[in-house]
Amino acid sequence: MFAKPMPGRTTAAAEGEIVVFLIGMRINHFRAPHQWMPVFVGMLRMLRELKGIPGSGLLGHQLLSGSPRTYYVVQYWESKEKLLAYAAAPDRLHRKAWAMINRFERGSRRHVGIWHETYVVPAGSYESIYGDMPPYGLAAATGSLPVERRGVTARDRFASGAQG
Asked: How far apart are CA 114 and CA 37, in angstroms?
């Protein structure tokens, strides 16, 4: 269940362009779980759905908490086209969840806040290092390499470019 740390220093095996998608929610009123719980559960259901779709474009994700009120997911995608295709697919959970959110916003008295940010990161514009860590973040999504394969310093890893 728990990943074992990889000894020493590693870096992500990512190649080429990466899309980083952040999506989250904020509980504005704890006493209205009937308003915010469906949003939280919907996030988990969409992640489960994406894992079951071969070629969806989702490379990996990390579910995080910013506070007792805020929860978010860092997602790594192959391309913005695959992210947008999932978001717009009429037969996928995202469309149903988005319709639910719109209904809730009209009648919720703002019990739950939602947000997302999308970043397209070109090859050569990201680097990573992990010390005595199990695969995490980008490395969990794309695999790990010994840090020496990309460069010992951040400057070296940027210079390697991770060209795909």
From this structure: 12
What is the per-residue DSSP string for 72-94? EEEEEES-HHHHHHHHH-TTSHH
pLDDT tens digits, one per residue of 27-77: 999 988 988 898 899 999 999 999 999 999 999 999 999 999 999 999 999
Phi, psi of 53 (to 5 degrees): -105, 105
Threshold 0.85, pTM exceeds: yes
CB of 21 closer than 8 Å to CB of 72: no
Q: How many CB atoms lie within 10 A of CB 45?
A: 15
Element holding 143 (H helix, E strand): none
**Whole-angstrom distance, CA of residue 119 vs CA of residue 33:** 31
d(CA 159, CA 108): 49
